[in-house]
Structures are given as C-alpha cells and as structure tokens.
Amino acid sequence: MPESMSEYLKQDMKCEGLLECMHGLKQLDRDCYQVLVESDEPMTIDEVSEHVDRERSTTYRSVQRLIQTGFVQKEQINYEDGGYCHVYYPTDPGEIADDMQRMLNDWYAKMGQLIQEFEDKYEEEAVVTAEG
C-alpha cells in the first residue's frame, strides 16, 4: 500500500482499488465480493468459501468486513421444519457509489480545513520569524 497521497496518484489504479483505498479491504475481501456479485442468487458462507478456496471461518470474517463497509447484505432464511441459515448478497452498486462519493466529499472538506490550518499556522510563524 502506498505511503503517501502522491504515491497513490502515480499508481495505475482500477476501480477495485477503491475497496482497499477507501475501506481498507484485502484481496480476500475483494474475492468474496466478486463471487457474490457474479452469483445469480444469494449465497451461504459455505458456498462462498468453496468459490474462494478458503476455510469457512476465514471467509466468514471477510464477509463480515464486507457487511460492515456496506458492500454486502445478510438475510436469514427460515426452514419450514425449523432452523435457519444466513445468505449474503451484494448491495446495489449505486448505493455503494453514493456512499463512496459522500465519503470522498467528507474527506475533501476535512483536507481543505487542514490545509487552511496549515497555512494559518505557518504563515503566522513565518511573520514572527521575519519580524524577530
């Protein structure tokens, strides 16, 4: 992962890079997300695990990260004879894009504020140094 914003801007990024850049998601998270996106039906953790060739517990943790970031939804399916299972499916890409745009706007506003604070602080110190 790049250590500075200028390094990020020099990279040849793809849209999937947003998953890492904005949400800190790992390769397995991206793989699980891709499997869910490509599926015509919601999937169980066992089904996702099979597709990504990872242990069930590892896949579960990855899918939980995807739920926390809003990329994946979880639904409980109740069986007629009792019991239930959970299935997972991707969130609508438009909703995800809207959330990422809001996050980017918030980040941009915060960076603008910090840049102004930087200018104010060091401009004052430069004036004091020049006068002293």
Structure notes:
It is a single chain. Helices cover 64% and strands 11% of the residues. The model has no long low-confidence stretch (mean pLDDT 88). α3 packs across α4 (45-52) and α4 (45-52) packs across α5 (56-68). The protein is built from six helices and two strands; from the N terminus they run αααααββα. The chain is mainly alpha-helical. The chain has two domains: 1-91, Orthogonal Bundle (Arc Repressor Mutant, subunit A); 92-132. The radius of gyration is 22 Å and the shape is elongated. It has a two-stranded antiparallel sheet with strand order 1-2. The chain has helices spanning 5-10, 17-23, 27-38, 45-52, 56-68, 93-131; strands at 72-78, 84-90.
Topology:
Elements: H1 5-10, H2 17-23, H3 27-38, H4 45-52, H5 56-68, E1 72-78, E2 84-90, H6 93-131
Antiparallel strand pairs: 1-2
Helix pairs in contact: 3-4, 3-5, 4-5
